[in-house]
Amino acid sequence: MFGPVLLAASRSDRMRRVVAAAPVTRPVVNRFVAGDALHPALDRVRALTTGGLDVTLDHLGEDVTDRATAHATRDAYLRLLETLREEKLGARAEVSVKLSAFGQALPDGGHDIALEGVRQVAELATSIGTTVTLDMEDHTTVDSTLAILRELRPAHPNTGAVLQSYLFRTEDDARALAVDGSRVRLVKGAYKEPASVAYQDRREVDKAYVRALRILFEGDGYPMVGSHDPRMIAIAQDLAARNHRAAGSYEFQMLYGIRTAEQRRLADEGERMRVYVPYGADWYGYFMRRLAERPANLAFFLRSFAPS
Ligand code: FAD
Q: PANTHER family of this UniProt entry (predicted)?
């Protein structure tokens, strides 16, 4: 019931100012965001990687409307990758990028500006032995994001993409991407999408997730199972067994701070488990999507306003 309202609020500048200014917000945000800046987040990353988990780091930001901020996003990722090189974390840490933070929606040549920015990031990632995954945002960006993936893959074949099972088009996209060397993170989808392009019923989204999962596991690519849902995880493990996939020929991914015991359990079972670690000051949109996904998170947030 609150999900659509929170997703609409996630793109409201007025709500952003209200939520960010509330003194009680920060401790709740810290549950989902690893730090305001790279260095505190790196302490969390080290704790995860020494515990046998892999990570993908997200420098928070999205919906950039000017070139200077788009370039600042690129520079933040270049600094992040230099730090991963210095800290010798390249084997366990990759990066996830939102192309809207690289200027994808800018009116004059946004697609090309985002492509050039992310190309530089992919070049540095390749040189330190790691990879970039292109997060997927709302449905209006899918064609541009997949076109950028196609541009990057000849020089950087390990560049990853994200597909969202709530979109009607995803089975076709999964078939096209289930090819040798291709890395695809399958998620259910976190944006507010119209009924003309996306399933609205959670059961339909789940069924579509299983269909796309099957395509990816039967194909030649590298499936990345981005879900906290125990049923989807069990089905993925079953598909891995049926398709004779060894551990390490696919992976599980979950978000920082969510179902951490399950993250540990899967890693202890010998599965490759990667944690998506967001950091940075621009946490508002990411945080609101996490509240929208689960009413209990909203209740936790609202309880933090109550006098103790
Ligand atoms: P649900 O059915 O939503 O949840 C299953 C169970 O997981 C819940 O019962 C609960 O126990 C737990 N859970 C789920 N969400 C939360 C939460 N917020 N807080 C606490 N518990 C929770 N979406 C995109 O649109 N684009 C992306 O690029 C993208 N990247 C992602 C990367 C990763 C690694 C992951 C894990 C998710 C990503 N998502 C992305 C979000 C995704 O689309 C879903 O919104 C989110 O994962 C919730 O769906 P679920 O599969 O976990 O299943």
A: PROLINE DEHYDROGENASE 1, MITOCHONDRIAL, PROLINE OXIDASE
